[in-house]
C-alpha cells in the first residue's frame, strides 16, 4: 500500500499572525480510512480546506497521487471529493441535477449511468426528481456525499459527516462509508462521535493547536495506550486503602464500598492474582468484581490534555 496523499511541513498563517497549521507532516495510504481527531479550533477544517484548495498554505507542500496541490491544482483537485460540515445545497435544486452539475464542474462528460450508480448506492435513486428542500437532514447529507463522488474521486474528505443526523441514519451513512472503502476510495474524516472512529478508522491522527500529536493504527493505539480497570465491590465499606494494599494502584470510591485497580493490558503480568491474595491476607471480603477497558475517547482526551501541558 502506498501513500496517495503526502503532506510535508504544511503551515497556514492568517492575517494578524494566527498560525492555524504548524508544520503538519502526514502520509495517508491509498484505500485507508483515517480519522482526524481534535478539539474545536485544533486545525482540522483548516487542514482539509488547504488540501482541497479552498485556502492556500503559507508554506510547505502536499501532493495527491503525485500532483502538487499548488502547482498542479487542477489535477490534484480532480482526485478529491469534499463533503463539508455545513449543508450548502440550493434548496430548490433537484437531487439528480446536483450530481450532474458536479460532474460538469470538474470537466467530466455527462454520464447518466454513473450518476444512477452513485444515487442507488446512497439510496437516493427514488429521490432523484425531488427538490432538496423536500428531503430530511440525513438525506441532504447523502446528496452532499453524492455530489462529492459524482466526478469519481480517489480521495474523499468527510468533515463531520454525521453531525445532526439521528442514530438510524448515522448507521446507514457509515454503511455507505464502508462500501466506499471496499471500492478503494481513500477516506479522511473528522468526527465528534469518537466511537465511530474507533469502529471504522484504520488509523487515527490526533491534531491540537495546528500540530499533529500522533498518528497510529487504531488497533495498535488501543493496545498500546488502552488500560483496563478492575472494580472490586466490598462487603463492608472502608475509610481508606489499607496499608497492606499500598503496593497496588488502588482508588477507593467516595462511599468506601469499592476499590478500582488500574493495570496495563500489555504487561507480562497484570498483578491481579497477587492483589486477590492481598485482599485475603488483609481480611477484606469481596462482594463482586467487574472490569472495563479504555475507549478511544478516553485515550483521545488523555492525549489532548497531555498536549496542552507541553
TrEMBL record:
MF term (GO), any: ATP binding
UniProt keyword annotations, A-Z: ATP-binding, Nucleotide-binding, Transport
Record's signal peptide: none
Domain ABC transporter residues, every copy: 5-234
InterPro entries the UniProt entry points to: AAA+_ATPase, ABC_transporter-like_ATP-bd, ABC_transporter-like_CS, ABC_transporter_ATP-binding, P-loop_NTPase
Record carries keyword Secreted: no
Family matches, as Pfam families: ABC_tran
CDD domains, sorted: ABC_DR_subfamily_A
Protein name: ABC transporter ATP-binding protein
Amino acid at each position: 500500500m502506498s501513500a496517495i496523499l503526502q503532506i510535508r511541513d504544511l503551515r497556514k498563517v492568517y492575517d494578524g499572525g494566527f498560525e492555524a497549521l504548524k508544520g503538519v507532516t502526514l502520509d495517508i495510504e491509498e484505500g485507508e480510512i483515517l480519522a482526524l481527531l481534535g478539539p474545536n479550533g485544533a486545525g482540522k477544517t483548516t487542514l482539509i480546506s488547504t488540501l482541497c484548495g479552498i485556502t492556500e498554505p503559507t508554506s510547505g507542500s502536499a501532493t495527491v497521487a503525485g500532483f502538487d496541490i499548488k502547482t498542479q491544482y487542477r489535477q490534484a483537485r480532480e482526485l478529491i471529493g469534499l463533503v463539508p460540515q455545513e449543508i450548502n445545497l440550493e434548496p430548490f435544486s433537484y437531487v439528480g441535477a446536483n450530481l450532474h452539475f458536479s460532474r460538469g464542474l470538474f470537466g467530466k462528460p455527462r454520464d447518466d449511468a454513473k450518476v444512477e450508480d452513485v444515487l442507488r448506492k446512497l439510496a437516493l435513486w427514488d429521490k432523484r426528481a425531488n427538490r432538496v428542500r423536500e428531503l430530511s437532514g440525513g438525506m441532504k447529507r447523502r446528496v452532499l456525499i453524492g455530489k462529492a463522488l459524482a466526478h469519481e474521486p480517489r480521495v474523499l474528505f468527510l468533515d463531520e459527516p454525521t453531525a445532526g443526523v439521528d442514530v438510524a441514519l448515522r448507521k446507514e451513512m457509515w454503511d455507505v462509508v464502508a462500501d466506499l472503502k471496499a471500492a478503494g476510495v481513500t477516506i479522511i474524516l473528522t468526527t465528534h462521535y469518537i466511537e465511530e472512529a474507533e469502529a471504522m478508522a484504520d488509523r487515527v491522527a490526533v491534531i491540537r493547536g495546528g500540530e499533529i500529536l500522533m498518528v497510529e493504527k487504531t488497533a495498535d493505539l488501543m493496545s498500546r495506550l488502552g488500560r483496563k480497570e478492575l472494580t472490586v465491590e466490598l462487603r463492608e465499606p472502608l475509610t481508606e486503602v489499607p496499608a497492606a494494599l499500598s503496593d497496588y494502584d488502588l482508588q477507593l470510591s467516595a462511599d468506601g464500598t469499592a476499590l478500582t485497580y488500574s493495570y496495563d493490558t500489555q504487561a507480562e503480568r497484570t498483578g491481579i492474582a497477587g492483589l486477590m491474595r492481598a485482599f485475603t491476607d488483609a481480611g477484606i471480603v469481596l462482594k463482586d468484581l467487574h472490569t472495563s477497558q479504555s475507549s478511544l475517547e478516553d485515550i483521545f482526551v488523555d492525549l489532548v490534555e497531555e498536549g496542552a501541558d507541553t
